[in-house]
Batch of 3 targets.
Target 1
Amino acid sequence: GENVEQHPSTLSVQEGDSAVIKCTYSDSASNYFPWYKQELGKGPQLIIDIRSNVGEKKDQRIAVTLNKTAKHFSLHITETQPEDSAVYFCAANLPGDSFGNEKLTFGTGTRLTIIP
Amino acid sequence: EPEVTQTPSHQVTQMGQEVILRCVPISNHLYFYWYRQILGQKVEFLVSFYNNEISEKSEIFDDQFSVERPDGSNFTLKIRSTKLEDSAMYFCASEQGTDTQYFGPGTRLTVL
């Protein structure tokens, strides 16, 4: 099965600086890598995702990079703001069986704190 | 924007009691999932459901757990005889078939 490792577990950055969170995965069959943001008491919210046919994807201040050879992917947040403070989870899929569903394996999470 | 909803937001139950957690997935989605998150830990897959049957289940999803889609909108998770270690946040997610899973706000289950 898939195993996803995530680092660091906690990260504090000054407002306006950049934050980088890294994940590695074990199963080379994984081809979809979402990132979720979880605020206290809420469910995970998808913030960006990447598929294995691209190496980088950007959405405003958020970008994700994927290195398939090394089996790692990273989340980059630039110009951080206080509202970016949350727990961030990376995840990797296992491609669907004949039914097409794809379970996600999550990393252990990174608690990001933006210091005003 | 359509979203996944879950009820109740918090459920407190006595050990050994049955609980049913309810979810309303996004209306045109085809694949449904339950995940759980023990306090302070990562989100763990429990079960996936498609075309009115279980597609895959994890080792956590033992005989005490069951899922059902009783009508065209609801998706339920039943725990027959709760244990202390079932205390967790339970998240429902749905997917249209494009990989992207959307999560509900969760139900916090507390087993006393």
Target 2
Amino acid sequence: KNQVEQSPQSLIILEGKNCTLQCNYTVSPFSNLRWYKQDTGRGPVSLTIMTFSENTKSNGRYTATLDADTKQSSLHITASQLSDSASYICVVSGNTGGFKTIFGAGTRLFVKA
Amino acid sequence: NAGVTQTPKFQVLKTGQSMTLQCAQDMNHEYMSWYRQDPGMGLRLIHYSVGAGITDQGEVPNGYNVSRSTTEDFPLRLLSAAPSQTSVYFCASNFYRGDTEAFFGQGTRLTVV
């Protein structure tokens, strides 16, 4: 069964600290993996996309990694800011019985002053 | 450029009532979709459309209808609301079906009592 599992479910950190969010998937064959940020009361917005050949990609203070062999991805946030408080959703796409996109349940991040 | 516009933002319905959630995009995207987001779960696909006049069922289509008469508009109809349809609904558009970057509307929080 194609699944996307994210951990932790929620996380509280102090402003200025770093954190890492995890995403494990079983989608096969794999096409790509996206990380979305969802602010409270808003729709998700894409942060970055990882394809099979990419190991690391940065977008400002966000760095995503992908290990296609172990089917794991992480999103590292450096020097967190209050505005980073949001849900972060891992989304994996694959061509499995037709093109499919599977959403993880998300990690809820709270950044405190 | 408004992107994806969803209305209403909040709605309360009584069991058995019907309503239509509106969605419009101004990016000339071919692919549009409706998702529901429930606590602890990833976004689940309700219905999607690959172009005007073409719609298909997603993962959780029961109780919902869609139509796509124009490229811009993709309304979602609840036929006879049930408490199990209490959720947050998101409309999204992609340039085409295989393009994995989805642009989401702001969401509709629906409560069925």
Target 3
Amino acid sequence: DGGITQSPKYLFRKEGQNVTLSCEQNLNHDAMYWYRQDPGQGLRLIYYSQIVNDFQKGDIAEGYSVSREKKESFPLTVTSAQKNPTAFYLCASSMDLFLPGAEAFFGQGTRLTVV
Amino acid sequence: AQSVAQPEDQVNVAEGNPLTVKCTYSVSGNPYLFWYVQYPNRGLQFLLKYITGDNLVKGSYGFEAEFNKSQTSFHLKKPSALVSDSALYFCAAEGGFKTIFGAGTRLFVKA
């Protein structure tokens, strides 16, 4: 089945640690996104990418980093510089960033908790 | 600034009754509008979208949405609610190659 796979489902981070969230898609989509979801705030865009080796900051990129070495993969690293990382993280993809009206396909999410 | 507003945090409806989840938007140019649904601890699932044409858009699971340009609204509707429709619903608008999401509305359908 085609889709987006995020792992792990749950992740616990100690203060000062960097952690990496995995996102893989087999939909052959060009565009990939990372969103952060907090209660009552909807989804906020962290980073997005249209092609391999190219990515752009979203609205809340501080404290996060990404890479796009393969079309299928778009991992997100939550660094120690992110002061409030506890949230639900969603990865998404769409056919093309520049294709108007293309709907997004989402992974199942990773719930990150700082302990 | 571009934005999407969902004025109700929660909507309660009895099973079998019609439901409406409200959404208004503020984006430049012609709007591309979406509705997504999220079940607990899951990702979002696409329900329907408006690109152009007929103002009434039909989507998955019997949902439909009405685009009203003069009121800049895109309300989600279903003629007869099911308990299984209980979930978190997000309205979204595309503006400038970015998708802007509303804060979400929790729909609770009582048996």
